[in-house]
Each structure stands twice: as C-alpha cells, then as structure tokens.
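hi support,

uploading two proteins for the ticket. first:
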Amino acid sequence: MHAANHLTRRRFIKGTVGAGLAVGSQLSAAPAFGYCSANDRPIFATIGLRNQGVAITNKSTQFADFAALADVDSKILGTNVEQLEERQGTRPEAYEDYRRILDRKDIDAVMIATPDHWHTKIAIEAMLAGKDVYCEKPLTLTIAEGKVIERVKKETKRTFQVGTMQRTESSQRFLQAIALIRDGRIGKVKKVTCGIGGFGPSPAIPESPVPAELNWNEWLGPAPKVPYRALPEMRKGYGGGVPLYSNGHYAFRNWHAFSGGKLTDWGAHHVDIACWAISPWDTGPYDRGSYQTRARKITPLSYEFDVDYDKNGYPLVDDKYDIAIKYNIKVDMQDGVELLITNEGDNGILFEGSKGRFFVNRGKIVGKPVEDLASNPLPNRAVEEVYGGPVPENHTLNFIEAINAQKEPISDVWTHNQMLEICHLSNIAMRLGRPLDWDPDKRQVVGDEQANSFLSRPYRSGFEINMS
C-alpha cells in the first residue's frame, strides 16, 4: 500500500486523528494529524516559491517539515530559504532543478506552485517518483493533460490534493452555500453566475534583458521558446516586486502560452464551487467519480480581446497580452441549469433558484436564505455532510489525513478536471468565436476538429514529461 511504503521511517497511525481540531494554536513543533509525535511529521518540499508557493508552505509548517525548496529564480529561492529556516528552525536545501527534489527518498510529498504550464509535468513526475502531490490550481494547461494526470494517479495510487482551498477554508462560507442548496433553501437551482473579474489590456511589451537571477529557459520549460519581455513599471500589492507588464512572474496569467487568464485563475475557484453545489458526485465514467451534472454546451455571449486573432484561433501579435479581457460565457449544464461566467460585477458566486437566491464570496454570504438562518438554522452537521466529515481549518490538513487514510482528499483530480474543462473550453470558444457542443463522456467537442485541436499542445523538445 502506498502510504505504508512512503511512511517507512514513521509509525503509521490508522485512520485520521482530530480532523475537527483548530490548527491556529498549533506550534511549529506540533505533530501532524495521523502522526504520533513531533519526530513523526511528514517531510515536504515546495517547487515554485512566488506568491502561492510561499502561502501554502507557510500554512503547512505547523504540521510538516520542509526539507527542500526549488525555484528557477535564485533571488526568490535564496530569500525563501532564509525565511523558512527562521520559521521552522532548520534550513531547507535549495535547488534550481526540481528533479533533485524528486530524486530524494526522504521527501514524502511535494507542493507545486509553479506557473500553470509546469504543473502537469512536475506533478506526473512526482507521482512516478513515489511522492504524494499538492498542486496549485489550475491543475492543467490543457484538457489532455488532465487525462494523463488521472491515468498516472490511478496507476501510482499516490494521494493528490488540488489547491482549490475554497473547498476547505474561507471560513466555510462556500460549504455553507452548498449546504443551503442541498437543504432546498432556494428550491431547484436555475442559474449560477460566477463573477471572476478580468485582467486589463497591456501596452506593447518589448523584448528585455532577462534578470540576472532568472533562468528564463527553465522558466519557459514545456512552453514555446520566446524572448523575455518586460516594461520598467513595477507591480504593487499582491505579487508585487516584479514588472507590472511582462510575460514572466505573475503576468504569465495573461498569455495563452502559459495560462488561461481569469478563466483558469479565478474560474478554477468559483466554477469549482458552482459545480460542486449544483451536483454531488456519482459513480460515473471517471475513476474517482464525477459530477452528475455536466457541461453540454459552451456559448460565448460576448467577449473582447485587446489583440486580433486569425481564423484558426491564434493571436496575430506576440508583444501584448492575448487573453480575453471581457467576457460573458453561458454554459448549458445537462440538467437545465445555466452557468454564467463573467468578468462583470462582484467577484463571487450568485445562486438563483425557484424559491430564492443568495451570493457568496470569500468575505461574505448574503441574501434572504442566509438571513432566514437566524430563525431556521441548517440541520446539525449539514456543513460536515457536504465536506464528508469534520472540516479542518487548513487545506493541507485534509491532504495529510487523506495520505494516512489512503482516501481521496476533498479537492481530487477527477472533479477538478471536470469543472476545469469548462474553463478551458470557454477560452477555446472565445478564440474560435463560436459555441462548442461538448461530449462529457468522450471528453471531446462534437463535430469540431479545429476546436479539438486545442485540447492538447506539444511540449518543447527537451521538456517532455519523463514517464520512466
């Protein structure tokens, strides 16, 4: 059994322990749930250290020890090694090449927070190397990548958590939203609107010298080889300290070569919750199980690019952001629910049903069905029933518990890929300028070979996935 193999240095505790306990008061020396002492903590490593890489590492030092960090930016790598040593009291090894981490037998699990175009390659190679995986969203750059991840996960039986942490965190607001729907508080769901915001356009971004600390070739990895581009103005706030306009750090989200814009950035959060809310899992064609309610048609009602596209769906310029900056996309789900994905309005999810509606995001859950809870509360354990058990305060705790119990974590690859297909297809529909009929069983666009050609893309020579 894989958990026993990868925990040979520690005494394995059957089942899970104390999943409902608060973790905020745990000290850095506290044992992980499912491990018997501070010396039995699992050994982690993080690959990709900007923004979310730092966030998920810092949230996990309460119950895991980090033996190594990897990043292709030496400045970021060095800074995070120093900060993590101060935080956990031991110094992690530093690597530019993530494969050095995968070679180490003492590392139980990896946390992946690279740019999107690297996720699948590293995740698959990590599973094949005997590591359990926590990977940031969006899990894939293409729908074909999701299929490969599913196959390798099934073959290796590794535990795999996707970083869609809204399923666990955000003060359980999204779980409460699903519980409201499951309890019939808005009747039959008719429409769900996911407001995910949008990235703005860019000026023309010239070729620029690569920063001395950045290995640009390794940063590009599987993506096409292109020159580094940047303007002098620096980004402020979240993700700050890098050029505001570039094709590298943070701004990679604005280029189809590396990401899918807001559709796969925030869409991977809110479309995920929307799909979970309107449809529980069944024992469908996916190995883990699938949603009972799946997408059938994706229609771009309106959209806007800041660059022109050719008739084959490719941008005609290479020096400006090429993702859609405005969009309203209608997704017809197979049971008649209409899913709308838009850059307009408040960031969050509006659920509308035959008996009412309410809105939820990370900071609030509002509407009459929510107000009615004061006099008519949800049944006991309604939120836990949505989650499948007590809800930990941290997404990584669920990951460790799943490793120990040899069960799927709350954010599994099967349902993640199914909802992420909607986000990928939305981008394809806008690039081609037409609706797409989707066969969720065959996982193909019906009668549109041009659209199906976007379901996969080649890896750059020398950066193919190592399946050995």
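and the second one:
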Amino acid sequence: MTFNAYPFFIFLAIVFPLYWLLPRRGQNLLVTISSFVFYGWWDWHFLPLLWFSTVIDYAAGLGIERSTSERKRKAWLAVSLVTQLGMLFVFKYLDFGITSMQSLLESLGFRPNLATLGLILPVGISFYTFQTLSYTIDVYRRQLRATHDLVEFSAFVTFFPQLVAGPIERAANLLGQFQRKRTFDSALAADGCRQMLYGLFLKTVVGDNCARVVERAFDMSQFEHVSGWTLLFAAYLFAFQIYGDFAGYSHIAIGCARLFGFDLMRNFAYPYLSRSPAEFWHRWHISLSTWFRDYVYIPLGGGRVSPVRRRWNVFVTFVLSGIWHGAGFGFLFWGVIHGACVALQWWPAGTKIDAPCGRGLVPKAKDLLQVALTFHLVCAAWVFFRSPTATVAVEVLGRIGGSIGDASWAQFTTALLRYPEPVVSIFALVAVLMAIEWVQRNRPHGLVMERMPRAARWCIYFTTAFAIMTFGRVEQVPFIYFQF
C-alpha cells in the first residue's frame, strides 16, 4: 500500500475514527495491527522478517538494561547489531558482492561460476533496521530506558506513516509519544491534512512528471542514441524528481502522523535553497544525516579530534551514507563526492537552516550564486545516484559536457522545444515549485499560510487538489526510496 494509491485513503478512513475511539493501549495495538496490514499489502511474505526485527531489538533492549556487567551489555548490543546489519547485508548487498567477486575473478583470468541468491529487497528494511538500532544503542548508552511493553515497542517500529521510507525516528521522540496519552487536536489534524496535500502535490505533480523525462533519457535500450542535451534536461529534472518523490513521501508521512496525534521529525527543509554542500545536508534527508552524525561520526571522534582526523571522519561518514543507499559503485561515488566537498569545507557559505538566504523576499546576488553552484554540484552527484553503473554516469557527464562545450543558445532552445515530452511545461512547473519554496522557506511546509485571508487559503488548497487530480500521475510511479 502506498500513499499515492486510492486504497490508502480507504485504509486511512477506516483506521482514523477507530483509533480515536480507543484508550491509549488500544490505540497502540490498533497502530501495530494496522501497520502490519499496511506493510503486508505490498508483500505479506516479509511480515515475519519485520516481526523478527522488532522482537530481537525489544529483547536486546531489555537484556542490555537488566545486565549487571558491561560484558553482558555489550553481548546484547552485539546481538542487535549483528542481527539488524546482518539482515541488511544479506538482502541488500550479498548478491552485489557475489557479482562483483565474479567480475574481479574474471578480470584476473579465472572462470568461476558463482551463483547469486536472487533475493528480493524487502521494502523499508534500510529504514526500520536503522530505527530499531538507534533504540538499542541509546539504551546501551543509558540515554534511554528500555520499554517493557512489546505492543508499545512494536507500534514504534512499525508505525505505518513512516515505516517504509522514514523519517527514521528516534525512540526518545516517537516511542515516548506512544507511552503518553494522546488527545485529538483539530488544529494539528488540519495542518496534517495540509501537509499531506502538499506532499501529494510534490510527489504526483512535480516528481512523477519529471520522471517522464528522466525515464526516457536513462532507458538503457536506447541510451546510445540519447543526446547530451536530453541528458542535461534529465539531470536537472532528476534532482526534482527525487526531491518531489522523497520529500513528498516525508510530508505525507508527517502529516498523516499528525492525524493520529504524533509529531515526527522534519526530514526536508527546502534543500535546493542551500548555499553549500554542508548546508544541503542540514536540509536533505535530515533524519538520516543526523542518524549518521550521532551513530557514526561522533563515535569516530566527531569534531573532538585534530582537523585532519575530523575531515576524515566526515568523509567516512558520507561514504557509508552512500553505501547505505544501495549496492552499487554509483552510490559509493555519490557518497565520495559529497563527503569530499563537506570534509574540505572550501565552500564559502554557512550551514544554518533556520533562515535560508535571509528573510527578505528578494535574494541577494551572492546568495543566488552560491545556491546555483551548490545545486549544480548536487545535480552532478545525482547522475551517479541515478545511473545504473558508475561507468554510465561518467559517460552521461561526458556527453553533457560535450554538448555544452560545442553548443550555442539556439541549439539549446531547439533541443528544448523539440523534445518528445513537454519539457518546457515541466520546467515551468519546477519554477513554480521553487517560487513557492522560496516564499515559504521559513515555514515547515508549502501550505502554511496562517496570515492569508481564509478565502485565499482555501482557493490555494482547492487549486493544489485540482492540480493533483488533473496533472498528477496518481498510482503510476512507485516511490523511489522504496528500493532502498
């Protein structure tokens, strides 16, 4: 079941009223059962794996808290780490490792016949394993008390709005909310509906229409005939496809959680208004970047070490973040590019996320230049993320560079206007999105308009809904991050 499919809204219409008729423990049980239904709608065969992951870390948390010796505490933590990371490795990386070993041995002159397992990647496994790991690590660090309520813990792990693609929540925030009484807040629910509407607009109207161009450009069956201009358009639009897709999911998840009285962490903060790579990572997939900061970067020494070691720690953290996204050298190089840029700190801009580019309506020239430079670096890195192999990514960048180097403005305009898909309309849509996000950049999402007259607000809500129904590709394009 996905947020951009009609069955989800039927599911929501059933679960929502039942939830608010129950006491707290009944609500937690309903969330757990509903979450397993939500997840099993995709493929029920992986429900035992989700339950196994949940039970293991529930037991590990209790074991860590009850152990009187440090050796036993470490043993229970090791059970959690080995189980969760082991599942992640087997399903996500084992086949890639076997294939890579096969290629390496063949390049050395051997003729091995290594068989892959052909495993299907369970949707959301990268997200819920990291979420449960943060719980056991925090219990081990004595930053959190272990819960003794299995239903409560299961609801935390499987909470359906953010189960399959985040935000990756911490137990200190989300588990604590399952432990407290919740009362219906109409203002919170109304804002949740607005945020869900904005998320659906990002996903179905922006992201999925950009996908039309991207899919055509990266179709490997026709790749040798694709021009550099086409690849340039696709590189730009993939940046907005993945943003609309993933930020859209996060907004829907956060808004949906508010309907049930929960406050999830912010996951995107207008990242394409960033003035440096470091600021971009304060704004993009915030729940993951802070997870790697707290559980990888800081344990490596963080900023408490020498400048050289600190830069190395930053670089390693980003490389591991790239590997987390998928089994492929393209993801590795994507992490290397961002890690090198952030670690070297040569970008002349700050990293504050509270007021991107100041609070005025008209941007400063310096800010615009920094935003443009950062955006183009991010787009170049996205090519490695989107391409099926690193070799293809290098070829894509080479073709783009060749077209730009040999081109005139007339050639660019001709390529844009004669493209089979309505590229001009899609770029116009992207421009509208960026204008909205610029105006709303100091608010949590694009439909927070408390200072506008009520009639104007409702006009915008209906216009957004009309755009989704008219131009949105509802139920046509799966969420990109489901494959991670």
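thanks. also noticed: Residues 17 and 462 are 24 Å apart (CA to CA).
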